[in-house]
TrEMBL record:
It comes from Nipponia nippon. InterPro entries: Actinin_actin-bd_CS, CH_dom, CH_dom_sf, CLMN_CH_second, LINC-complex_assoc. Residues 104-133, 291-310 are annotated as: Disordered. Its main location: membrane. PROSITE patterns: ACTININ_2 (PS00020), CH (PS50021). GO terms for cellular component: cytoplasm; meiotic nuclear membrane microtubule tethering complex; nuclear outer membrane. It is found in: Membrane. GO terms for biological process: nuclear migration. This is Calmin. Residues 121-133 have a biased composition (Polar residues). Keywords: Actin-binding, Membrane, Phosphoprotein, Repeat, Transmembrane, Transmembrane helix.
Protein backbone atom coordinates (compact mmCIF):
# COMPACT_ATOMS: atom_id res chain seq x y z
CA UNK A 1 0.00 0.00 0.00
CA UNK A 2 3.02 2.27 -0.08
CA UNK A 3 3.54 4.74 -2.91
CA UNK A 4 5.45 3.48 -4.78
CA UNK A 5 4.54 -0.07 -3.61
CA UNK A 6 7.13 -2.15 -1.76
CA UNK A 7 7.38 -5.90 -2.25
CA UNK A 8 8.64 -8.32 0.38
CA UNK A 9 10.28 -11.40 -1.10
CA UNK A 10 11.97 -12.72 2.03
CA UNK A 11 10.77 -11.27 5.33
CA UNK A 12 13.87 -12.16 7.32
CA UNK A 13 16.21 -10.59 4.78
CA UNK A 14 14.14 -7.64 3.60
CA UNK A 15 13.42 -6.43 7.14
CA UNK A 16 17.10 -6.11 8.03
CA UNK A 17 17.63 -2.54 6.86
CA UNK A 18 14.50 -1.20 8.56
CA UNK A 19 12.80 0.10 5.42
CA UNK A 20 10.05 -2.52 5.25
CA UNK A 21 9.41 -2.24 8.98
CA UNK A 22 9.13 1.55 8.88
CA UNK A 23 6.90 1.43 5.79
CA UNK A 24 4.62 -1.15 7.42
CA UNK A 25 4.20 0.94 10.56
CA UNK A 26 3.58 4.05 8.46
CA UNK A 27 0.72 2.33 6.59
CA UNK A 28 -0.79 0.88 9.76
CA UNK A 29 -0.57 4.02 11.88
CA UNK A 30 -1.15 6.69 9.25
CA UNK A 31 1.85 8.58 10.61
CA UNK A 32 4.98 9.53 8.68
CA UNK A 33 8.08 7.47 9.38
CA UNK A 34 9.79 6.98 6.03
CA UNK A 35 11.29 10.46 6.05
CA UNK A 36 13.60 9.21 8.83
CA UNK A 37 14.81 6.23 6.80
CA UNK A 38 18.48 6.34 5.75
CA UNK A 39 19.51 3.98 2.95
CA UNK A 40 22.94 2.50 3.54
CA UNK A 41 24.82 -0.79 3.52
CA UNK A 42 26.58 0.15 6.76
CA UNK A 43 25.27 -1.73 9.78
CA UNK A 44 25.15 1.35 11.99
CA UNK A 45 22.60 3.03 9.71
CA UNK A 46 20.53 -0.15 9.39
CA UNK A 47 20.46 -0.47 13.17
CA UNK A 48 19.44 3.17 13.48
CA UNK A 49 16.52 2.68 11.08
CA UNK A 50 15.25 -0.32 13.03
CA UNK A 51 15.74 1.46 16.35
CA UNK A 52 13.54 4.32 15.12
CA UNK A 53 10.80 1.85 14.19
CA UNK A 54 11.02 0.11 17.58
CA UNK A 55 10.96 3.49 19.34
CA UNK A 56 7.78 4.36 17.41
CA UNK A 57 6.19 1.12 18.64
CA UNK A 58 7.11 1.89 22.23
CA UNK A 59 5.71 5.42 21.87
CA UNK A 60 2.50 3.80 20.58
CA UNK A 61 2.24 1.88 23.89
CA UNK A 62 3.48 -1.38 22.38
CA UNK A 63 5.77 -2.57 25.15
CA UNK A 64 8.68 -4.44 23.58
CA UNK A 65 10.56 -6.97 25.67
CA UNK A 66 13.84 -8.60 24.59
CA UNK A 67 13.49 -7.37 21.00
CA UNK A 68 16.34 -5.11 19.98
CA UNK A 69 17.52 -3.64 16.71
CA UNK A 70 20.51 -5.98 16.43
CA UNK A 71 18.33 -9.11 16.49
CA UNK A 72 16.12 -7.72 13.71
CA UNK A 73 19.13 -6.56 11.68
CA UNK A 74 20.54 -10.08 11.95
CA UNK A 75 17.26 -11.58 10.71
CA UNK A 76 16.65 -13.63 13.86
CA UNK A 77 13.62 -15.57 12.62
CA UNK A 78 11.87 -16.18 15.95
CA UNK A 79 12.22 -12.56 17.05
CA UNK A 80 11.17 -11.20 13.65
CA UNK A 81 8.05 -13.40 13.72
CA UNK A 82 7.34 -12.41 17.32
CA UNK A 83 7.62 -8.74 16.38
CA UNK A 84 5.35 -9.07 13.32
CA UNK A 85 2.74 -11.05 15.27
CA UNK A 86 2.59 -8.35 17.93
CA UNK A 87 2.26 -5.64 15.28
CA UNK A 88 -0.68 -7.60 13.82
CA UNK A 89 -2.16 -8.08 17.30
CA UNK A 90 -1.82 -4.42 18.30
CA UNK A 91 -2.70 -2.58 15.09
CA UNK A 92 -5.36 -4.94 13.76
CA UNK A 93 -6.84 -7.41 16.21
CA UNK A 94 -6.66 -5.36 19.42
CA UNK A 95 -8.00 -2.26 17.67
CA UNK A 96 -10.85 -4.13 15.99
CA UNK A 97 -11.91 -5.99 19.11
CA UNK A 98 -11.66 -2.74 21.06
CA UNK A 99 -14.43 -1.47 18.79
CA UNK A 100 -16.44 -4.55 19.70
CA UNK A 101 -16.07 -3.70 23.37
CA UNK A 102 -17.16 -0.11 22.81
CA UNK A 103 -20.19 -1.26 20.84
CA UNK A 104 -21.29 -3.77 23.43
CA UNK A 105 -23.45 -3.01 26.44
CA UNK A 106 -21.09 -5.01 28.61
CA UNK A 107 -17.38 -5.14 27.89
CA UNK A 108 -16.24 -7.32 30.80
CA UNK A 109 -13.77 -9.34 28.78
CA UNK A 110 -10.87 -9.10 31.18
CA UNK A 111 -11.22 -12.71 32.28
CA UNK A 112 -10.18 -14.82 29.32
CA UNK A 113 -10.71 -18.56 28.98
CA UNK A 114 -8.90 -20.63 31.55
CA UNK A 115 -6.58 -23.54 31.13
CA UNK A 116 -3.59 -24.12 28.87
CA UNK A 117 -5.67 -25.38 25.96
CA UNK A 118 -7.78 -22.24 25.84
CA UNK A 119 -5.00 -19.69 25.78
CA UNK A 120 -4.73 -19.06 22.05
CA UNK A 121 -2.59 -15.98 22.51
CA UNK A 122 0.73 -17.55 23.45
CA UNK A 123 3.32 -17.69 20.68
CA UNK A 124 4.14 -21.30 19.94
CA UNK A 125 7.85 -21.32 20.74
CA UNK A 126 9.71 -20.43 23.95
CA UNK A 127 12.04 -18.07 22.07
CA UNK A 128 9.07 -16.02 20.95
CA UNK A 129 7.08 -16.43 24.14
CA UNK A 130 9.52 -14.32 26.11
CA UNK A 131 9.13 -11.45 23.66
CA UNK A 132 5.45 -10.66 24.09
CA UNK A 133 4.95 -6.95 23.48
CA UNK A 134 1.28 -6.86 24.45
CA UNK A 135 0.43 -8.37 27.82
CA UNK A 136 -0.99 -11.88 27.91
CA UNK A 137 -4.12 -10.45 29.52
CA UNK A 138 -4.58 -8.03 26.61
CA UNK A 139 -4.02 -10.80 24.10
CA UNK A 140 -6.58 -13.05 25.78
CA UNK A 141 -9.04 -10.18 25.94
CA UNK A 142 -8.67 -9.29 22.27
CA UNK A 143 -8.76 -12.85 20.94
CA UNK A 144 -11.65 -13.82 23.20
CA UNK A 145 -13.64 -10.84 21.92
CA UNK A 146 -12.96 -11.91 18.34
CA UNK A 147 -13.98 -15.50 19.16
CA UNK A 148 -17.27 -14.34 20.69
CA UNK A 149 -17.94 -12.21 17.62
CA UNK A 150 -17.34 -15.25 15.41
CA UNK A 151 -19.62 -17.42 17.55
CA UNK A 152 -22.45 -14.90 17.28
CA UNK A 153 -22.08 -14.73 13.51
CA UNK A 154 -21.87 -18.47 12.89
CA UNK A 155 -24.36 -19.85 15.43
CA UNK A 156 -27.37 -18.90 13.29
CA UNK A 157 -26.09 -21.36 10.68
CA UNK A 158 -25.56 -24.17 13.17
CA UNK A 159 -21.74 -24.03 13.18
CA UNK A 160 -20.16 -24.41 16.61
CA UNK A 161 -16.84 -22.55 16.89
CA UNK A 162 -14.97 -23.28 20.11
CA UNK A 163 -11.49 -22.04 19.29
CA UNK A 164 -9.21 -20.72 16.55
CA UNK A 165 -7.78 -24.14 15.72
CA UNK A 166 -9.67 -27.40 15.15
CA UNK A 167 -13.08 -25.70 14.84
CA UNK A 168 -12.04 -24.39 11.41
CA UNK A 169 -10.79 -27.62 9.80
CA UNK A 170 -14.07 -28.49 8.09
CA UNK A 171 -14.27 -25.08 6.39
CA UNK A 172 -17.84 -24.59 7.61
CA UNK A 173 -16.89 -21.83 10.06
CA UNK A 174 -15.27 -19.74 7.30
CA UNK A 175 -18.32 -20.26 5.08
CA UNK A 176 -20.70 -19.31 7.91
CA UNK A 177 -18.91 -15.98 8.43
CA UNK A 178 -19.15 -15.27 4.70
CA UNK A 179 -22.85 -16.14 4.76
CA UNK A 180 -23.34 -13.77 7.71
CA UNK A 181 -21.96 -11.00 5.50
CA UNK A 182 -23.86 -11.97 2.34
CA UNK A 183 -26.36 -14.84 2.51
CA UNK A 184 -26.37 -15.23 -1.28
CA UNK A 185 -22.72 -16.28 -1.46
CA UNK A 186 -22.92 -19.57 0.45
CA UNK A 187 -25.27 -22.57 0.51
CA UNK A 188 -24.63 -24.32 3.82
CA UNK A 189 -26.62 -27.42 2.82
CA UNK A 190 -24.37 -27.96 -0.20
CA UNK A 191 -21.30 -27.30 1.93
CA UNK A 192 -22.28 -30.13 4.24
CA UNK A 193 -22.01 -32.58 1.35
CA UNK A 194 -18.53 -31.39 0.36
CA UNK A 195 -15.12 -32.34 1.69
CA UNK A 196 -13.16 -30.10 4.03
CA UNK A 197 -10.73 -29.24 1.23
CA UNK A 198 -13.57 -28.18 -1.07
CA UNK A 199 -15.17 -26.05 1.64
CA UNK A 200 -11.90 -24.36 2.55
CA UNK A 201 -11.10 -23.66 -1.11
CA UNK A 202 -14.60 -22.29 -1.64
CA UNK A 203 -14.36 -20.07 1.44
CA UNK A 204 -10.98 -18.57 0.61
CA UNK A 205 -11.89 -18.04 -3.05
CA UNK A 206 -15.28 -16.45 -2.32
CA UNK A 207 -13.78 -14.20 0.35
CA UNK A 208 -11.12 -12.96 -2.05
CA UNK A 209 -13.17 -12.70 -5.24
CA UNK A 210 -16.50 -11.52 -3.81
CA UNK A 211 -15.60 -9.74 -0.58
CA UNK A 212 -12.13 -8.42 -1.38
CA UNK A 213 -10.49 -10.19 1.57
CA UNK A 214 -6.88 -11.17 0.76
CA UNK A 215 -6.21 -14.90 0.69
CA UNK A 216 -3.73 -15.41 3.51
CA UNK A 217 -4.35 -19.14 3.88
CA UNK A 218 -4.52 -22.30 1.79
CA UNK A 219 -6.57 -25.44 2.58
CA UNK A 220 -3.35 -27.26 3.43
CA UNK A 221 -2.69 -24.76 6.23
CA UNK A 222 -5.94 -25.73 7.96
CA UNK A 223 -6.18 -29.44 7.12
CA UNK A 224 -3.62 -30.43 9.75
CA UNK A 225 -4.00 -31.84 13.23
CA UNK A 226 -3.19 -28.53 14.90
CA UNK A 227 -3.85 -25.52 12.62
CA UNK A 228 -1.84 -22.42 13.51
CA UNK A 229 -4.08 -20.31 15.74
CA UNK A 230 -2.32 -17.01 15.09
CA UNK A 231 -2.69 -17.44 11.33
CA UNK A 232 -6.42 -18.15 11.65
CA UNK A 233 -6.91 -15.21 14.04
CA UNK A 234 -5.13 -12.89 11.61
CA UNK A 235 -7.20 -14.08 8.65
CA UNK A 236 -10.55 -14.02 10.47
CA UNK A 237 -9.90 -10.50 11.77
CA UNK A 238 -9.95 -9.32 8.16
CA UNK A 239 -13.67 -10.07 7.93
CA UNK A 240 -14.33 -7.72 10.83
CA UNK A 241 -11.98 -5.13 9.36
CA UNK A 242 -13.64 -5.19 5.93
CA UNK A 243 -17.20 -5.24 7.29
CA UNK A 244 -17.19 -3.09 10.44
CA UNK A 245 -20.96 -2.67 10.21
CA UNK A 246 -21.21 -6.21 11.61
CA UNK A 247 -19.43 -5.19 14.82
CA UNK A 248 -22.24 -4.32 17.18
CA UNK A 249 -25.09 -5.91 15.25
CA UNK A 250 -25.87 -8.48 17.91
CA UNK A 251 -22.97 -8.02 20.32
CA UNK A 252 -24.93 -7.38 23.47
CA UNK A 253 -23.37 -9.38 26.27
CA UNK A 254 -19.92 -10.81 25.46
CA UNK A 255 -19.74 -13.05 28.55
CA UNK A 256 -23.21 -14.54 28.22
CA UNK A 257 -23.27 -18.16 27.11
CA UNK A 258 -25.01 -18.72 23.81
CA UNK A 259 -28.15 -20.81 24.40
CA UNK A 260 -28.94 -23.75 22.14
CA UNK A 261 -32.42 -25.20 22.21
CA UNK A 262 -32.52 -28.50 24.09
CA UNK A 263 -33.74 -31.21 21.76
CA UNK A 264 -33.07 -34.79 20.69
CA UNK A 265 -32.05 -35.02 17.07
CA UNK A 266 -31.21 -37.70 14.54
CA UNK A 267 -27.90 -37.68 12.69
CA UNK A 268 -27.79 -37.92 8.92
CA UNK A 269 -25.74 -40.86 7.65
CA UNK A 270 -22.46 -39.73 6.12
CA UNK A 271 -19.49 -41.57 4.64
CA UNK A 272 -16.47 -41.95 6.88
CA UNK A 273 -14.51 -39.12 5.28
CA UNK A 274 -17.34 -36.73 6.13
CA UNK A 275 -18.33 -38.15 9.47
CA UNK A 276 -17.32 -35.05 11.42
CA UNK A 277 -19.88 -32.99 9.47
CA UNK A 278 -23.35 -33.82 10.70
CA UNK A 279 -26.74 -32.52 9.61
CA UNK A 280 -29.17 -32.02 12.44
CA UNK A 281 -32.90 -31.86 11.73
CA UNK A 282 -35.32 -30.36 14.23
CA UNK A 283 -39.06 -29.92 13.94
CA UNK A 284 -38.90 -26.16 13.44
CA UNK A 285 -35.89 -25.71 11.21
CA UNK A 286 -32.77 -27.31 9.80
CA UNK A 287 -29.55 -26.68 11.68
CA UNK A 288 -26.00 -27.86 11.08
CA UNK A 289 -23.46 -28.60 13.78
CA UNK A 290 -19.97 -30.02 13.81
CA UNK A 291 -19.92 -32.96 16.21
CA UNK A 292 -16.65 -34.53 17.33
CA UNK A 293 -16.68 -38.23 18.12
CA UNK A 294 -14.25 -41.13 18.27
CA UNK A 295 -13.52 -42.01 14.65
CA UNK A 296 -12.91 -45.67 15.46
CA UNK A 297 -16.61 -45.97 16.29
CA UNK A 298 -19.63 -45.12 14.14
CA UNK A 299 -21.44 -41.85 14.74
CA UNK A 300 -24.07 -42.13 17.48
CA UNK A 301 -27.68 -42.39 16.21
CA UNK A 302 -28.78 -39.50 18.41
CA UNK A 303 -27.16 -36.42 19.91
CA UNK A 304 -28.66 -34.36 22.70
CA UNK A 305 -28.02 -30.66 22.11
CA UNK A 306 -28.22 -28.52 25.25
CA UNK A 307 -26.78 -25.31 26.66
CA UNK A 308 -23.94 -26.67 28.78
CA UNK A 309 -20.32 -27.02 27.58
CA UNK A 310 -20.51 -30.84 27.71
Amino acid sequence: QCKPPLKVKDLFIDIQDGKILMALLEVLSGQKLMHEYKSSTHRIFRLNNIAKALKFLEDSNVKLVSIDAAEIADGNSSLVLGLIWNIILFFQIKELTGNLNRNSSSSSLSSGPSGPESDTSHPSTPSVERNVSVTVKDQRKAIRALLIWVQRKTRKYGVAVQDFASSWRSGLAFLAIIKAIDTTLVDMKQALEKSARENLEDAFSIAQNKLGIPRLLEPEDIMVESPDEQSIVTYVAQFLEHFPELEGEDFTDPDKELPIESTYVHIKDTPSEKESKILILSESEENMYTVNHERSHPAPPKVHIHDTPE
